[in-house]
Amino acid sequence: MVANILKAGTLPDEPDGLENGQAVDGDPVPEPTLPPHLATFLGEQLRTFYAHLMSEPVPDRFVQLLGQLDWKGSANDGD
């Protein structure tokens, strides 16, 4: 069927239900889950990446933008 769809260049008329959280038959689609070992591995990888990211200096442009937001926020507090 996929080959037919690709050849025709169109999508089937029947929705797959992923957009609204329901299967084609109307039953709710269960939340996707990961095996525990995979979730642990991904968590470790994300922690390692973000730990490295947090040790990087904040770019000057971000510091400037945060200063501008802080200034505008304090200016609006007086209203």
Task: Explain the overall architecture.
The protein is built from three helices and no strands. The chain is an all-alpha fold. The radius of gyration is 24 Å and the shape is flat. The mean pLDDT is 78.
* SS summary, helix count: 3
SSE pattern, N- to C-terminal: HHH
Task: Give the helix level as a range of percent.
Answer: 55-70%
Largest sheet: none
Anisotropy-based shape: flat
The amount of beta strand, in percent, is under 5%
What's the total number of strands?
Answer: 0
End-to-end Cα distance, whole Å, is 63 Å
List segments where confidence is low: pLDDT < 50 over at least 5 consecutive residues.
Answer: none
SS-based structural class? mainly alpha
Radius of gyration: 24 Å
The residue-averaged pLDDT reads 78
